[in-house]
Model the fold of this input.
Amino acid sequence: MPFIYSDRYLKEFGEHIFPVEKYGLIKKSLITKSVSENQFFEPVEATEKQLKLVHTAAYLDDLKNRRWTQRTMFSELPLTAEVINLFYLAAGGTIKAVQKAVKNRWCVHIGGGFHHASAAKAEGFCYINDLAIAARFYVKTYPKKRVLIVDLDLHQGNGTANICQADANIFTFSMHEEGIYPVKEKSDLDIPLHAGTADDLYLQKLESAFHTILQRFTPNIILYQAGADPYYEDQLGNLALTKHGLQLRDEFVIDRAKVINIPIVTTLGGGYAIDTQDTVDIHTATCLAHINGFG
Ligand SMILES: [Zn+2]
Done:
């Protein structure tokens, strides 16, 4: 049962809606479900070379020197050494999750999923795009192999889509609410959803999207961004999934990885439920779905 986790993710980012405390609460909750302490693996910060798989030297230099520029100004987080280090750590965490999943078939990173950062620009709560870095790390480590990024956060994975547009061996799929943040980029497959989309229609669209993807692309690994914000009581969106629907969503993605017999790496993502405990429950269920799915 490999999970990537660091207590360092709990460092306070300052006053805003991103509930960093969720990371520690998910771990606590998994411990009560009989996941033992030695199943949580500490990440290390991504190296500069790994960060440069995706991000430009000028942007990384802004981060290093904590400069507010055209490249960093769209961040909604403070620009401090501590916060930036947490993003290096999260990128290292998703890379480590890839390494673990290649050996163990699956790995959940209780962190990461920062899909709005692009090569030369911070955005939202994202400075470093851990998903794109991990995808490029994988195809560099295993030339000729191919990555499918499944982004089921409420918000489009605009940064990931933009970064990977020219990567023939990385397929980006995003299913998200239309008409809200962010400004959309072109993924290899985008499925925009109307406000109010609930469990049944969501799951139908997910199934049909996978059908389309697998006709066009043969992946060797899935990187899954399992945002908790399609939840009906989320404060940032208007999709209407229940906890049960989100669990079925996770089980479906995990099941696809099993059926085509490829590893799956799962990161968290957004989650801004009115009651943070709901966000924690949804992410915890995502973790448990992997344990149950892989036995
Ligand atoms: Zn989101």
Remarks:
- Residues 153-155, 227, 229, 269-270 surround zinc ion (CB under 6 Å).
